């Protein structure tokens, strides 16, 4: 019984890691850059949602507040690419790594100076509720997390498979030069993808906040999401999600059945093991350049 | 502009361009050596800190600037150096043994990690080093009998041949010790860069494919660069341990890794001098902020001390500005200024214009 409860909780937190990882992978697939500020974008999204929803701030209803926050973060993501990242187009890859790390600090400072550094709680309609299922209780927040993740994944799949922009993004991610030549507006597509990953980050942030308090340093969760993305193979959307769920499940199990300290290390140990044995991840889609 | 007529190959690969630049370096070292007689205790401590940061920065510079690999977890190697040194000294070994041992431990660990890591391309390596950092941090807590765990560990005072190098009692001695280490490492580093090994680092950085075609063993070169870089960082870690005197795992946070990256990026990637410029900046900016805070409070009645994270934020903004507007860093800017004066009045603005380029892909499809 214990095991099932751990598993469900693990899958739910794994979904959050997976969603943050999804944000990394979206940007990596489209632009070959890695956004190290993804965790901080998740944090900022959660705080903006909190600002709209909580009764001592704007006090909007939950769903419209979250949607508004997602739209706003989409704009933030679009703006970051349009005005900052585009400036270093063509510079080596690690320039973007360092740039986004720095941006993460800026976002953390912004959130810290608006909402303060003490943990805050997002008011959700399903806070603390549980559903009894046989002899165990399942948190409604966990169920909502899993459902929303599934829906979002479907929506993203539909976006890339059927819409005009999604198809253009796929083309740009396969070969930017060729896509540019056949008329895909590569730069604008990149910005749109950044915006999209801002939206995904916000949803991940809201789901994360529904399970506990948030403070400006929760963005460090992004490191775990990296592990998830790497385990899944950095270029694979379903891989990122599955990698996240794997980490989410292993962590509580390790905490329960293995000696202390291993649990915190487990995501990274799995990741290093995957990197050593299968350097391209479990669901590799990328291949090294050959002459 | 002075043109040097080179008459031998040895002259061509000489460390210094001419006698003038040799004299300048000698003068710089002389001034640094005389520093304890020139400035007070406070500034001497700051200078020592700068030297230690420069040493750590050189370690990362070798990796990022000269072999083109990114590490986001170099604080882990600082920690390994510091803990190896302190733990061995606490076990009764002399500093002359523990100090090289710290470099060896960090270097070997780095090389060991590098063997799987170097097969990964840039971004994977960055993430793997980040993960490594988290693992090392947890290991420090778990290995409590050696590292003192959360409580921390004491780095005992250094004594070589009866001379005391304690950081508090004999700061000038400790400063000279750091200076000697930094000068020796810099000299070795500069010589490394003109050796075949150093040249192969540069070749691997600029194009892995062409380096391989020229017969360079890319995996070995990268692992070697990683190991050497970690060894240098380990030395810096050992000195940092003695500088702080009593430390626990929190000294080596992820922010230290980021600060190190800042040192090499702002200083100027690919120049040894860059590590020094960056180190000066990173130790000077907190002081400047403190002074500015004092000015703001006294003359405007404005209390910006109450905003936590302000200096991190300032660092981050400086970093963003440099990456966008001056990717070659402070040293690159210095070189450009120098050229402008040397060529005066013939220098043109477009001389340093960046070439337009498109994305250099690492993918096959």
From TrEMBL, chain A:
One of its GO terms (cellular component) is plasma membrane. One of its GO terms (molecular function) is transmembrane transporter activity. Signal peptide: none annotated. The chain crosses the membrane at residues 6-27, 34-53, 59-80, 92-116, 136-160, 192-214, 226-250, 257-276. It comes from the Bacteria. It is found in: Cell membrane. Its main location: membrane. One of its GO terms (biological process) is amino acid transport. InterPro entries: ABC_transp_permease, BCAA_transport_permease. It is a multi-pass membrane protein. Keywords: Amino-acid transport, Cell membrane, Membrane, Transmembrane, Transmembrane helix, Transport. Belongs to the binding-protein-dependent transport system permease family. LivHM subfamily. This is Branched-chain amino acid ABC transporter permease.
């Amino acid at each position: 019984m214990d095991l099932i409860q751990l598993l469900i909780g693990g899958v739910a937190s794994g979904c959050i890691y997976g969603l943050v990882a999804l944000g990394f992978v979206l940007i990596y697939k489209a632009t070959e850059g890695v956004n190290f500020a993804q965790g901080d974008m998740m944090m900022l999204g959660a705080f903006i949602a909190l600002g709209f929803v909580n009764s001592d701030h704007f006090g909007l209803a939950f769903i419209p507040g979250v949607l508004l926050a997602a739209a706003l973060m989409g704009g933030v993501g679009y703006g970051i690419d349009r005005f900052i990242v585009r400036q270093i187009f063509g510079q080596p890859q690690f320039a973007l790594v360092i740039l986004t790390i720095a941006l993460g600090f800026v976002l953390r400072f912004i959130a810290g100076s608006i909402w303060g550094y003490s943990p805050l709680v997002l008011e959700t309609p399903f806070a603390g509720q549980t559903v009894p299922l046989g002899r165990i209780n399942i948190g409604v927040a966990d169920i909502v997390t899993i459902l929303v993740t599934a829906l979002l994944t479907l929506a993203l799949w539909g976006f890339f498979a059927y819409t005009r922009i999604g198809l253009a993004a796929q083309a740009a991610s396969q070969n930017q030069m060729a896509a540019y030549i056949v008329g895909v507006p590569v730069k604008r597509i990149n910005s749109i993808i950044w915006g999209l990953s801002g939206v995904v980050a916000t949803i991940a942030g809201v789901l994360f906040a529904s399970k506990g308090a948030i403070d400006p340093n929760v963005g460090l969760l992004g490191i775990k999401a990296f592990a998830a993305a790497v385990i899944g193979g950095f270029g694979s959307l379903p891989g990122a999600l599955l990698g996240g769920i794997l980490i989410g499940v292993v962590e509580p199990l390790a905490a329960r059945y293995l000696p202390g300290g291993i649990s915190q290390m487990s995501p990274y140990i799995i990741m290093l093991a995957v990197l050593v044995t299968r350097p391209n991840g479990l669901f590799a889609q990328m291949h090294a350049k050959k002459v | 502009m002075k043109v040097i007529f080179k008459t031998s190959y040895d002259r061509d690969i000489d460390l210094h361009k001419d006698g003038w630049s040799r004299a300048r370096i000698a003068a710089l070292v002389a001034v640094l050596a005389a520093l304890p007689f020139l400035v007070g205790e406070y500034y001497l401590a700051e200078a020592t800190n700068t030297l230690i940061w420069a040493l750590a920065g050189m370690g990362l510079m070798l990796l990022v600037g000269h072999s083109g690999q990114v590490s986001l977890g170099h604080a882990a190697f600082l920690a390994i150096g510091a803990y190896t040194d302190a733990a061995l000294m606490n076990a009764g070994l002399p500093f002359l043994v523990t100090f090289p041992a710290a470099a060896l431990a960090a270097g070997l660990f780095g090389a060991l990690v590098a063997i799987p890591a170097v097969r990964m391309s840039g971004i994977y390596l960055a993430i793997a080093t980040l993960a490594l950092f988290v693992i090392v941090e947890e290991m420090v807590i778990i290995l409590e009998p050696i590292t003192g765990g959360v409580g921390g560990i004491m780095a005992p005072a250094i004594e070589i041949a009866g001379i005391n190098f304690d950081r508090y009692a004999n700061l000038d001695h400790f400063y000279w010790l750091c200076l000697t280490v930094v000068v020796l490492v810099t000299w070795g580093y500069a010589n490394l860069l003109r050796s075949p090994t150093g040249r192969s680092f540069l070749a691997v950085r600029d194009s892995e494919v062409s380096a391989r075609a020229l017969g360079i063993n890319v995996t070995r070169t990268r692992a070697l660069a990683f190991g050497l870089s970690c060894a240098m960082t380990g030395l810096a870690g050992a000195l940092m341990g003695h500088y702080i005197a009593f430390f626990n795992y929190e000294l080596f946070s992820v922010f230290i890794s980021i600060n190190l990256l800042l040192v090499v990026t702002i200083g100027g990637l690919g120049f040894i001098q860059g590590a020094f410029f960056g180190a000066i900046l990173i130790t000077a900016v907190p002081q400047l902020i403190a002074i500015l805070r004092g000015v703001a409070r006294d003359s405007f009645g404005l209390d910006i001390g109450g905003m936590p994270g302000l200096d991190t934020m300032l660092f981050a903004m400086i970093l963003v500005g440099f990456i966008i507007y001056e990717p070659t860093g402070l040293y690159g800017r210095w070189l450009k200024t120098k050229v402008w004066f040397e060529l005066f009045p013939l220098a043109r603005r477009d001389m340093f214009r960046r070439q337009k380029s498109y994305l250099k892909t690492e993918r096959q499809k």
